[in-house]
Amino acid sequence: MEALNLNVENTSSKKVTKLPPKISPKHKRINVLEEYKKRNDNKVALNLVVVGHVDAGKSTLMGHLLYLLGEVNEKTMKKYERDSSKIGKSSFAYAWILDETGEERARGITMDIAITKFETEHRRFTLLDAPGHRDFIPNMISGAAQADVAILVIDSTTGEFEAGFEANGQTKEHALLVRSLGVQQLVVAINKLDVVSWSQDRFNEIITKLSPFLNQAGFKKDKVIYIPCSGLTGENLLKRSQNILEWYSGPTLFQQIDKFEPPIRLLDKPFRLSVSDFFKGGISGMGGITVAGKIEAGTIQIGDDVLVIPGGEYGVIKGLEANDESSKWAAAGDSILMTLSGLDILQLKVGSILCSVSHPVPVTSYILAQIVVFDIKVPITKGFPVILHRQSLNEPAIITKLVTILDKSTGEIVKKNPRCLPKASSATVEIKLTNRPVPFETYKENKELGRIMLRKGGETIAAGIIINILSYNS
Known about the structure:
Strand content: 25-35%
Organism: Rhizophagus irregularis (strain DAOM 197198w)
Distance between the termini: 31 Å
Radius of gyration: 23 Å
Number of helices: 9
Subcellular location: Cytoplasm
Family: Belongs to the TRAFAC class translation factor GTPase superfamily. Classic translation factor GTPase family. EF-Tu/EF-1A subfamily.
CATH architecture of the largest domain: 3-Layer(aba) Sandwich
Number of strands: 26
Shape: globular
CATH topology of the largest domain: Rossmann fold
GO molecular function, one term: GTP binding
CATH superfamily of the largest domain: P-loop containing nucleotide triphosphate hydrolases
Largest sheet: 6 strands, mixed
Number of domains: 3
Strand order of the largest sheet: 2-3-1-4-5-6
């Protein structure tokens, strides 16, 4: 997405008129930035998403790695082996570490985002195992929106890589989606090489086909690393046998993900959290409403007032869990649970934004966006209906105007008021939501909340950034 031209005017947030609640009970204020620095001096926290075509072996690969790291005890692993053998699916045992529901285990596919924690020498990871099946792409988008870095799992067996990479496969779509959502660092795990006798030729063939596409998708060559491995045998996950991978001298999967660089966090921006889930009841049995999500910008601590957009309802933070640990504060990049008091649960929806009372997020149903059109079958025209995705939010919308076609390299205008947008084009368009106004920010204000994706008929047709908000709602 580097080619997107971001020289746009700043847009100011409209202030809500509802008065805030009475001042929250006094808590001893914490210097969150100081505490954040102390925490990250030890190990940097990163959100890692694992994506790839259905049956590429994502859950088996990561489940086996977690087992080798000691995150699953021997007794539990033996139970998974027995239970999977009983239903004739013994190869699924490691996948069951992440695929927890009965339906996922029976069907042998991941249907929703599975979340697990693990650590390397220098990093603390929140692992997001995303579904590969095309029916669950919206779930995958919701999970990938929380990610800082990614592993793309490739099935190297004959015909299977081609099925995932070519017609209607999810390999291309997943790679485009994670890049569109801001992921810049990618490890490509070329899996199941044991099935093709650890063929170096097959490994190189896949890289030759995949590398130009990933480069075109916006991944820099030095930010993409290819690792040969087997999720089933465990080869080259934590260590490798010299007699199996004689031709490979690079890092193991574990060594490579330990080298992921932390992204720049928006600590100095106003607080923003996109709601991915919520429920009645508080952390550790306290009352209230609990909200789950990733902090996209700013910092918070117990006792702070927050604002729900849309709706304009206020809540007071009574409890926090950051990265699965009880905490008195949290900061940009943290995946959190937050218990709020004084809030009506009916005002919350998945995709709502919790934000700073003094700097609310704009609410709108009409935006100007700069998009890159993917490999579509039918050109995009004025009046084209789409589903707009922004993290866990998805809303029906219409492309109301094709404003310009842009040069993909320079961002300069090539054509004004085009009749249609062909595949692989870059353009500015006006988009109107058809159901309700929702919170949006421009990419210039907040890179995380300013990214969107457009889908139609079960396929992702475009991705881009919001460059202006064309009308405001209260």
